[in-house]
Design a protein that fits this description.
Order of helices and strands: HHH
Mean pLDDT: 84
Largest sheet: none
Number of strands: 0
Radius of gyration: 21 Å
Strand content: under 5%
Structural class: mainly alpha
Shape: elongated
């Protein structure tokens, strides 16, 4: 069983996605256990699950579906651009709305 840096990066990304989801499911609260605990639970789950899948050579057929760093960066920049556009639109709308003076 070989664990390389790509496995570790995938486990960290999985932890960021899975931890909050598991926290919400178990606690039935939006915040789950809190950011740090959610991450820790997600990381532990990703590592344990990743090692078990490697040991037992489990193949779900989902290996060809992947997210690479370029796609994550593109998504991040796209989300920042979207927020910037919303900010600009909201500023323009607030300038057009007349304020009432008493």
């Amino acid at each position: 069983m070989n664990i390389d840096i790509y496995d570790i990066i995938a486990w960290i990304i999985a932890a960021l996605l899975i931890g909050p989801l598991v926290g919400m499911i178990v606690t039935r609260k939006k915040a789950g256990y809190g950011r740090l605990k959610n991450f820790g639970i997600g990381l532990a789950g990703a590592i344990i699950g990743g090692i078990l899948f490697k040991i037992f050579n489990l193949n779900t057929g989902l290996a060809h579906i992947s997210i690479n760093a370029q796609e994550l960066l593109a998504g991040l920049l796209g989300a920042l651009l979207f927020i910037l556009i919303l900010f600009i639109i909201s500023k323009r709308r607030s300038k057009k709305t007349p304020t009432s003076k008493s």
